[in-house]
Amino acid sequence: MTPQLEAQLITLLPVVIVFAFFFFVAVLPQQRKDRRYREMLARLKKGDRIVTRGGLYAVVLEVKDKDLMLELAQNVRVRAERSAVLSVLKRGGAAT
Fold it and tell me: What is 44-96's CATH number, 2.30.30, 1.10.3470, 1.10.10, 2.40.10?
């Protein structure tokens, strides 16, 4: 190795370290979170108790490709996109 090549590598090393740091601290955890969220949406089924992104608590009555039929209260039904689901509170069970 020539001294000039070594100097270039030493100059580039901090950039590589910063990139690796941000990848492992910011990018990788976000990718894992996104993957878990997509898996949760794919596992939605009738009877699941959920919370929507708007803060509404509901029970899943029907699951289709991209949308769901939700029951918010007795005889109050709405259709929502799967992506409107924030989290699942309880899996399965009977719809109220």
Answer: 2.30.30
